[in-house]
C-alpha cells in the first residue's frame, strides 16, 4: 500500500535538492540539469494529486509541463552555446557583464 | 511487492539526485539525471499513470537528456574546479535555507493529505482517456503548446547559429 504523503514529501525533498544545486553549482549546464530536477519534483507531486483526485486534469498538466521542459531545454542550451562562443566558458560566476 | 518497489525507487531517486547536485563532472551528473528521470517514471507507473510514465521515459530520459549530453560533449566541458560558488556566504547559507524550506514544505504536504489513495477511477492514466481529454476539453492549450515548441525550436536555431559580437 502506497502512502500519498510519502510520495509528496519525496517530491518536496527532490525539489529542495534541485534548489540547492541551482544555488551551489557554477556550470550553466549543471544549473539547467538541477532545474530539470525541480520540474520533475513538481510533476511527481502533480501525478500524486491526480491519483488522489481521480480525473485526468492533473495528468494533462504534467503533459504540458513536459512539453514546456523540452522547449526550455532547447532554448537554454542554445543560450549556453552562444555564451560559450562569446566567452569561452559556461561558469556563471565569470559571466557578469550585466552585474552592477 | 508494491512497497518494495516504492522503497527501491525512492532510494534510486534520492541517490541519483544527490549525484546530479554534487558531482563535478557534468557527464556523470547528466547520466545520473537520466537515472533519476527513469526512476520517477517508475513512480508514475506505480501510481497508475502509465501513459505519462512512458512519455517521461521517451521525452525526458530520451530526447531531453540526449540534447543535454550532446551539448556537454560538443562544448567539451571540463570538471568544475575550486569551491562551488564564489562566496563562502552563499555556500553555507544555500543548503541551510533550502533545508528549512524542505522541512516546511514537507510538513505542509504531510498534514493535509489523506494516508491512503482512493481506488483508481475508470481508465485512469490510459492513453485513450488522456487523448480524448487532450483533443476535446484541452484542445486550445494543446495547440498553443505546439506553437510554443515551434517558437522554441526557431529560437534555439537562431541563438546557436548567429555569431554574437
Give the structure's gist in a few sentences.
The complex is a heterodimer of chains A (100) and B (165). In chain A, 78% of the residues lie in helices and 0% in strands.
What does this structure look like?
The complex is a heterodimer of chains A (100) and B (165). Chain A has one domain (4-87): Helix Hairpins. Chain A has 3 helices and no strands. Chain A has helices spanning 4-24, 28-53, 57-87. In chain A, helix 1 runs antiparallel to helix 2 and helix 2 (28-53) packs antiparallel against helix 3. The longest helix of chain A is centred in the last third of the chain and has 31 residues, at 57-87. Chain A is elongated, with a radius of gyration of 17 Å. Chain A starts with a helix and ends in a 13-residue tail after the last helix. The mean pLDDT of chain A is 89. Chain B is mainly α and 165 residues long. Chain B has 2 domains: 1-79, NADH-ubiquinone/plastoquinone oxidoreductase chain 6, subunit NuoJ (Four Helix Bundle (Hemerythrin (Met), subunit A)); 126-165. At the A-B interface, helix 1, helix 2 and helix 3 of A face helix 1, helix 2, helix 3, helix 4 and helix 5 of B.
Helix content of chain A: over 70%
- Tell me the greatest interface: A-B, 73 and 85 residues
Structural class of chain B: mainly alpha
CATH architecture title of the largest domain in chain B = Up-down Bundle
Oligomeric state of this protein: heterodimer
What's the SSE pattern of chain A?
A: HHH
Number of domains of chain B: 2
Q: What is the name of the CATH topology of the largest domain in chain B?
A: Four Helix Bundle (Hemerythrin (Met), subunit A)
Helix content of chain B: over 70%
Number of helices of chain B: 6
How is the secondary structure organized here?
The complex is a heterodimer of chains A (100) and B (165).
Chain A: H1 4-24, H2 28-53, H3 57-87
Chain B: H1 2-22, H2 26-46, H3 50-75, H4 88-111, H5 127-135, H6 139-161
Helix pairs in contact in B: 1-2, 2-3
Amino acid at each position: 500500500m502506497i502512502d500519498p504523503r510519502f510520495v509528496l514529501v519525496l517530491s518536496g525533498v527532490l525539489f529542495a535538492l534541485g534548489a540547492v544545486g541551482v544555488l551551489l553549482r557554477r556550470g550553466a549546464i549543471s544549473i539547467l540539469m538541477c532545474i530539470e530536477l525541480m520540474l520533475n519534483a513538481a510533476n511527481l507531486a502533480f501525478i500524486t494529486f491526480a491519483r488522489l483526485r481521480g480525473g485526468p486534469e492533473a495528468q494533462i498538466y504534467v503533459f504540458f509541463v513536459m512539453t514546456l521542459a523540452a522547449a526550455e531545454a532547447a532554448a537554454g542550451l542554445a543560450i549556453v552555446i552562444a555564451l560559450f562562443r562569446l566567452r569561452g566558458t559556461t561558469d556563471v560566476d565569470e559571466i557578469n557583464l550585466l552585474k552592477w | 511487492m508494491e512497497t518494495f518497489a516504492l522503497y527501491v525507487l525512492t532510494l534510486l531517486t534520492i541517490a541519483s539526485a544527490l549525484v546530479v547536485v554534487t558531482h563535478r563532472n557534468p557527464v556523470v551528473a547528466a547520466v545520473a539525471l537520466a537515472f533519476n528521470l527513469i526512476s520517477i517514471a517508475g513512480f508514475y507507473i506505480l501510481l497508475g499513470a502509465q501513459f505519462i510514465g512512458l512519455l517521461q521515459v521517451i521525452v525526458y530520459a530520451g530526447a531531453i537528456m540526449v540534447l543535454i549530453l550532446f551539448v556537454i560533449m560538443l562544448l567539451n566541458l571540463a570538471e568544475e574546479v575550486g569551491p562551488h560558488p564564489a562566496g563562502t556566504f552563499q555556500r553555507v547559507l544555500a543548503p541551510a535555507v533550502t533545508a528549512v524550506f524542505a522541512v516546511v514544505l514537507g510538513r505542509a504536504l504531510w498534514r493535509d493529505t489523506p494516508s491512503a489513495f482512493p481506488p483508481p477511477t475508470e481508465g485512469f492514466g490510459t492513453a485513450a482517456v488522456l487523448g480524448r481529454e487532450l483533443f476535446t476539453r484541452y484542445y486550445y492549450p494543446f495547440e498553443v503548446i505546439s506553437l510554443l515548441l515551434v517558437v522554441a525550436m526557431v529560437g534555439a536555431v537562431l541563438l546557436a547559429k548567429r555569431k554574437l559580437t
